[in-house]
Write a structure and sequence with these properties.
The complex is a heterodimer.
Chain A lengths: L1 H8 L4 E7 L10 H12 L7 H12 L8 H13 L3 E7 L6 H17 L3 E7 L3 H8 L3 E5 L4 H13 L9 H17 L1
Parallel strand pairs in A: 1-2, 2-3
Helix pairs in contact in A: 2-4, 2-5, 4-5, 7-8
Chain B lengths: L13 H5 L4 H13 L4 H18 L1 H5 L1 H8 L12 H11 L4 H11 L7 H4 L1 H7 L9 E5 L11
Helix pairs in contact in B: 2-3, 3-7
The chains are: A alpha/beta, B mainly alpha.
Amino acid sequence: MIDSLCDQTGGKDVAVVGLYCDFLAQQAQSATNMLGAILKQLVSRGGIPEHIREAFQKAKQDFGDRGLRIPEMVGIMRKTIRSLARVFICIDALDECASKHRLELFESLREIVRVSPNVRIFLAGRPHIGDEIMKYFSKVVRIPVIPTQDDITSYLEMRLDHDPDPYAMDGELRADIMRVIPEKISEM
Amino acid sequence: MLVQRQSLVPVSYRPLASGLGDPVQLLEKSDSHYTRSLHLSRKKELRQLTIAQMSSGHQQVTGNANSFNSLTNYGNIVNVAVGPDAERHQIQQWLSPLEPQQRHQGVRTDRLDGVGNWVLGTNKFRKWSDIGDGCAEPVLLCYGNPGVGKTYLR
């Protein structure tokens, strides 16, 4: 998704940023860190904007190296987004994010979408997060992802061509795999 | 100057690095305990996390030139920031210790071209990604069961 958007919308005032949630990193993936990672990507191409530099210098002078709090982060993000024509924020595997952090993240994103009409948000996850997202965002475009027969066939062919144990494979088994797995999947 | 990245490491991994043994052994251990079933790119991330933890959490590693070099060989995790880039680097670390680009590179590498491209052809997607302003529905949700290929949509 990130790559399509990058290729499709290439331009210096369009930013495409992304996050991958991971249940093994739930602790590190707090809402603050996730928002920070979005911000970090937004400023990765040009120089660091002056308002971020100022916030950093102030944080340094204050209590040690104080991190940003969520409302401050959202404020900085709004300012940063304002200087861009279009911002795509892509977040994958939301179901793997701790629910506390996820809800804080949604709240912040809702605020950002509300004040920044140039922002588009792409979210992906298992079906059960859909209801939660609908609660936070009034208008959501939903696309159920179900692999097509062509998707399944080309994926199976790729996996069989990269079989690490080719000696255990023969034409008959291969044919069975190519027939049975797509059938089973379409029954699901 | 070493950039501190300790906060990037989830607490559950910390015991792995506390013994400060051979990094490769540590990784093997971490592989068998936590990540055997993980995707290869995630293993790579974990490996980098472990190394980042070792290099930031233990002074003696950074004090030893050989260890330092061998650690950097695993993927340039120890960032030495000098000159005008130093502040930029500090600010980026201050904003967040997360590095989602690493995972993205793994996804790019493993993606099979063409699979899932139908999503990009849907009207819903086109309308949402349209460059014109004032989209009525700024949020696009792709949902599906585990393994259907949501992550690998191009």
